[in-house]
Amino acid sequence: RKHLPKAIIYSLAIAMVLYVLATLVLTGMQKYTEISPTSGFSTAFESVGMPGVANIIAVGAIVGIITVVLTFMLGVTRVWFAMSRDGLLPIWFAKTHPTRKVPTRVTWIVGFGAAILAGVLPINTVAELTNIGILMAFIVVCVSVIVLRRTRPDAPRSFRLPLMPVIPLVGIGFSAYLIWSLPWETWVRFLGWLVVGLIVYFAYSRKHSVMNRTAPEPSK
Questions:
Q1: What is the pTM of this model?
Q2: Distance between CA atoms of 100 and 56, rounded to whole angstroms?
Q3: Which residues, other chains included, contact 26 with Cβ-Cβ below 8 Å and sequence gap of 6+?
Q4: How far is Cα 96 from Cα 149, in angstroms, rounded to an integer?
Q5: 186 closest CA partner among 124, 142, 140
Q6: Which terminus of the chain is more solvent-facing, meaning fewer CB atoms within 10 Å of its CB: N or C?
Q7: What is the largest CA-CA distance in the chain?
Q8: What gap in Å lies between CA 178 and CA 106, rounded to an integer?
Q9: 42, 61 in Cβ contact below 8 A?
């Protein structure tokens, strides 16, 4: 419980440093106005007369994207499974395979849904909608950390966030800035999904949530 949050922070810090160093190398190889927005590194190596390295990087990028998508899909199925087990969504989705003990129903639904979205919608539209959803989730988490630290200061915590509330406020600020830079069409799509989610929550999830029924009464 203590080591996993630290490991996540360390991995994010290492990834950030590597990304910054890689972009410094990229802008040193090619002028920033000429960098391809779709295949920056491979075109940069091709521009300096190294097409073989460019092909290797392109293949590596495709493999990397596939692994990231599979990781996201795995996370979505587990969140969906946890919500269904709690009652926020119908318990039918929480059914697991009798042998493999994994939520096969939500896995099939997510797989087919992802395939349909990838085949019908432009990749930029899907990426922007995904980004605004994740960034908004980051904002909710940062706000929740601040609120819970004030409303429930005595709650047991295996990991306490340092520099409160500076770090959550920085997270809120950067996430809001990135959301603000997205096109207005993405805002409209996100608000539509948000309205659907709120309708599902107030019409079904709030009444059937197991944790909501067993939550302790707040102290007065």
A1: 0.70
A2: 36
A3: 35, 40, 41, 44
A4: 36
A5: 124
A6: C
A7: 71
A8: 30
A9: yes
**Token representation of residue 209:** 């949530």
Contact yes or no for 161/198 (Cβ under 8 A): no
CB 64 within 8 A of CB 39: no
Q: What is the pLDDT of residue 216?
A: 56
pLDDT of residue 40: 84
Tokens 């929480």 — which residue?
A: 94
Say whether pLDDT at 195 is over 90.
yes
Whole-number pLDDT of residue 153: 85
User: What's the rounded Cα separation, in Å, for the pair 107 and 117?
Assistant: 15
Whether the predicted pLDDT of 130 surpasses 90: no
Matching residue, tokens 């920033």:
32
Contacts of 137 (CB under 8 A, 6+ apart): none
- The SS3 assignment for 34 reads helix
Residue 5 has pLDDT above 90, yes or no: no
CA distance 94 to 106: 8
pLDDT (tens digit per residue) in 35-79:
887 788 888 888 888 888 889 988 988 888 888 888 888 888 988
The residue assigned the tokens 């500076």 is 166
Residues in the chain: 220
Sequence-distant (6+) residues with CB within 8 A of 79 are none
